[in-house]
TrEMBL record:
Pfam families: YgaP-like_TM. Residues 10-60 form the Inner membrane protein YgaP-like transmembrane domain. This is Inner membrane protein YgaP-like transmembrane domain-containing protein. Keywords: Membrane, Transmembrane, Transmembrane helix. Gene3D superfamilies: 6.10.140.1340. InterPro entries: YgaP-like_TM (IPR021309). The chain crosses the membrane at residues 12-33, 39-59. It comes from the Bacteria.
């Protein structure tokens, strides 16, 4: 899997997991977990608009390869 682009993007997988788990926690534990869901949504929009993604920086630091885009 690669950090960006393609169907196997780690960032999309992690964001989806965070949203899924936080919704489950909101249903079974506390509605305050929806704040975390909103935070994930805001970070996805920020990433789309600015290109800055903290999760991408974390994954790069962990050594996940970045896919080369061929033109």
């Amino acid at each position: 899997m690669y950090i960006v682009n393609g169907k196997g993007s780690w960032i999309r997988l992690i964001a989806g997991f965070f949203v899924f788990v936080s919704v489950l926690l909101a249903v079974f534990v506390s509605n305050y977990w929806l704040i975390f869901t909103g935070f994930v949504g805001i970070m996805l929009m920020t990433s789309a608009l600015t290109g800055f993604c903290p999760m991408e920086l974390i994954l790069k630091a962990l050594g996940v390869e970045q896919r080369k885009i061929s033109s």
